[in-house]
Amino acid sequence: MIEKKIIEIAFHGRGGQTAITASKLLAEMAYECGFKDAIAIPIIGAERRGAPIQAFSKISRDAQIRSYCSVTDPDFMLIFDTTLLKIPRVFATIKEGVILIINSNHKIDFNNNLQKSVKIYIVDATGISLKYGLAIEGFPILNIPMLGAFAKISGFYGLDIMEKVIKKKFGSRAEKNMKTARDAFETVKEMI
Amino acid sequence: MSQKEQEIKFISGNVAAAYAARSAKVQVISAYPITPQTTVVEKLSDFVDSGDMPAQYIKVESEHSVMAALVGASIAGTRTFSATAGQGLLYMSEMVHWAAGARLPIVMTIASRGIAPPWNIWADFTDVISQRDAGWLISFASSHQEIYDSVLMAYKICENEEVLLPMFIAYGGFVLSHTSKPVIIEPDDKLEKFLPPLPDEKGWPHIFIDPERPMMHGNLIMPSGFYYEFRMKIHDEMMKSTHIIKQVALEFEKIFGRSYGNGLIQEYKMDDADVVLINIGGLALQAEQAVDELRQEGYKVGSVKLRHFRPFPIDEIINIAKRVDVIGVVDRDTAFGSPTGGAVSSECKSALHNTGIDTIILPIITGIGGREVSVEQQKEEFKILMKLKETGELPKDMIHGTLWDGVLEVK
User: Fold this and answer.
1) Predicted ipTM?
2) Is it the case that residue B339 has pLDDT exceeding 80?
3) Among A131, A138, B294, B363, which has the highest number of CB atoms less than 10 A from its own CB?
4) How near does any CA of chain A get to the CA of B382, in Å?
5) Which of A42, A65, A69 shows the shortest C-beta gap to B374?
6) Residue scoring higher pLDDT (B256 or A169)
7) Does B375 touch chain A if contact means CB atoms closer than 8 Å?
8) What percentage of chain B exceeds 90 in pLDDT?
């Protein structure tokens, strides 16, 4: 799968959980660490806080990315909220060989409905964000811990690249963000 | 304000448009927010507020006033910029005509969206096409970099004394406005080499505000006066601007190293192509991927990006028609009641009239109101053209001679 020319990542979150920012940061970090091209594609409608949100990143080591289309057959799926797994259009994209990274503090029961080749990792992104006080009006900001977990699982970029991009984007708030990234990087684990 | 080194920024199409206005040393911006354009003028507001861009930023109460403010600022001899979309452009329409009639080199980006009702905010070029006859040059950008580059080229084209007309640069709302990609931001020394000098205190040669040289603006011209001749000259100079557009694209390539074909169109793998698909905007770039994939399967197909709709590249379309048997022309816009239902395909057909060329043009409409068009769908469009070439067989379910591709079943 890693040999694929263009790697596609799907983000599923709820409005306010910063999934769209995550898709942009991931693409930018991939570009920073030597991928030839990258694109972040948010799906925009009439969203508001709490509504299901989709965003995508496509990253490519060699080829130019020329399609602006959404991703229907992702290589990775970052699930910011476990309740989204119940949405049929989200569940339908969990295809063979996909790697799921789910924000959860407990095991998730798929009732053997997934193909064996699907790999599932869980990270307690909500707990990590709250632990380091990364929240707006009490709502935890999940993008950085989710991207920290993705860095570990994919191996596409390291914490050093994350720090570089996060410093550029968040300035003085970078350190707090990086603490959540490191924590998630270390604690993400495969769900067996 | 100053950009010493070339920089690659990971930004949205809208932010690329804002950077382009900054790079082009725009002096006056007037703005009113509308989705999906808003982040263009938000970014410009940041630039002006932080002192990063020494421009006047005029906040007004509507799009109509946006263009009115820019008309005034441009008459006074300044480089001006704004951005809008959809309903905002329609509301602005009266002043859009005013800008062209006064021959003002205003540049405006359009994050194109479907026209209401019903409400729609997604990619559809019907908004900018509706201003077809206003006297503005109309161009389309297919990538984030092309948005930035097109704005730079626009000032050089529009401010040329042989042109002196305004220009729209349109790109698909959300498709390009809100997706992000790496964009090269050029350094000052290169920009200085390329861009025309800012207008001096004398302003433009034909229209100015100067107590030493009193001039009446916007006065009434009787039918026996020169109104008629003004109109003729707009058409004449718009048609002749094709030469300036080509020249500017060439100079741009020399200085910045990025090619946009001959400026009017950009061809992709056309040398031995049997059939070709002509697209505008982002779909033109995506069609190149469809071409590559089909060529691996042995199909000889080519793609053309139509960069300019005004002036219309008549000679280029004739030249393409001489080389292939079948051309598919894709409109992401509607022109109700026109010969084909789409503006671009109608004009491509008209370009071939009386040329003696019997190349078949298949009009295609797709992606209306932001409906997603996949690479697979574009590959199918190419296959329809191949079948048409080989068997003469037209696709089923055409509507008034046009293929509405990707349309849902309606009763």
Assistant:
1) 0.94
2) yes
3) B363
4) 16
5) A69
6) B256
7) yes
8) 97
Do A66 and B181 count as a contact with CB atoms less than 8 A apart? no
Q: Report pLDDT for A31.
A: 96
Residue A1 lies in a domain: no
Nearest residue in B to A39, CA atom: B181
What is B22-64 written as a DSSP string?
Answer: HHTT--EEEE---TTTHHHHHHHHHHHHTTSS--EEEE-SSHH
Residue B258 corresponds to which amino acid? Answer: R
For the stretch B374-411, pLDDT in tens is 999 999 999 999 999 999 999 988 999 999 999 998 87
Q: Which fold has domain B267-405?
A: Rossmann fold (3.40.50)
Three-state DSSP class for A135?
Answer: strand
Strands, E, within B56-197: which ranges? Answer: 56-59, 80-84, 107-112, 137-140, 167-172, 180-185
Residue B338 clears pLDDT 50, i.e. is over it:
yes
**pLDDT score of A150 more than 90:** yes
pLDDT of residue A2: 47
Tell me, which fold does domain B7-256 have in CATH?
Rossmann fold (3.40.50)
Q: How far is A19 from chain B (nearest CA, A)?
A: 14
Count the Cβ atoms, other than its own, within 10 Å of residue B96.
26
Task: Tell me the residue type at A89.
Answer: R
Q: How many domains does chain A have?
A: 1
The structure tokens 């080199």 sit at B105
> Is the predicted pLDDT of residue A1 greater than 50, yes or no?
no
Q: Give the nearest partner residue to B288 out of A24, A39, A66, using CB atoms.
A: A66
Tell me, what amino acid is at A111?
A: N
Domain limits, chain B? 7-256, 267-405
